[in-house]
Amino acid sequence: MSMTYPLDILLNDWKAKNYVDLGKDCSTAEVNPLFSDSVYIDRLSRIPAIMEMPYNEIVRKFIDMYAGRLRNQVSFMLSACNFYMPIFEEALDAYGLPLELKYLPIIESALNPSAISRAGASGLWQFMIGTGKIYGLESNSLVDERRDPIKATWAAARYLKEMYTIYGDWNLVIAAYNCGPGTINKAIRRAGGETDYWKIYNFLPKETKGYVPAFIAANYVMTYYCDHNICPMETNIPASTDTVQVNKNLHFDQISEICNVPLDEIKSLNPQYKKQIIPGESKPYTLRLPINAISTFIDKQDTIYAHRADELFRNRKTVAVKEPTPTTRKQTAAVTGKGKLTYYSIKSGDTLSSIAEKLNVRVKDIQSWNGMSNTKISAGKRLKIYK
To answer: 164: closest CA among 217, 98, 108?
Structure first.
């Protein structure tokens, strides 16, 4: 669970830096009022949810953490919801899933689109590379669609729906989202076939034990934050965006300089491109831009693709290899000499000069007969000699 990202990291995202206003007066207080168990039980029961959200001391521990030590992160995430909740709600609704699942990325990534776990999971929904590929998220040296908020959300919705057809219980589904269905199935077997999350609880890995309670607590704190003196950071809604299709290789610098869009904004709107390169020549890809830059891009496409192309794309498509010519190398073809062919076995200590003297022939003749371009010889080899 990654909800413990430091606030300075969360605020480093381009959207946060440009649209979350830390300067405005906010009524988030340092004091977190404590409530009795009965109040928490009542509040959880009044959340309009399909998913079961029971209360116990483990859930309470997470509520205390979110409303206490992590209250500034909660304040940030309440504002970041403006960026991502419409995307989450649309996909969940399309698949007929409980809308309370929109808070799953809060415990997965703290709504940090650049989040990467120690295990290598990436993006808002923290897909591992293998699972991402199963659900249609491309990963290669240049593209990682796990970081694409829209594509990853729709992939997550498909995954959650498929898990529900297997388990028929939402708490088991989100537990499986955390540790994988294999681990859940093992816990069910060890619990004697029980399919209640709370009955297999003690057979789960440590992190998964906290996952469902953290999810319940996240739903609680995102609903009842006001009662804990937490206030969302002021958010200005970003300008509208739209997409265009890219069919050639394209670098963010080309877009930024011709369309006059800040590079950081292009990176934030297109987080799936790892090296600021869209490899459009391999297949068509989508580019998201502010709506006022879309017409500029369409009107100036040829100029954009050509701009600094030789400098930004240095990988060569072909490389010529020159064959050596008679002017760049010595002819080394062996020549048949006059007289009878005999062979001389080179001995240790022999040189071409000593052999020529011993056999009463010229060095250059031995070289010509044996196709030699220099005077190097090796003991044990044989030389052709014509006499």
So the answer is: 98
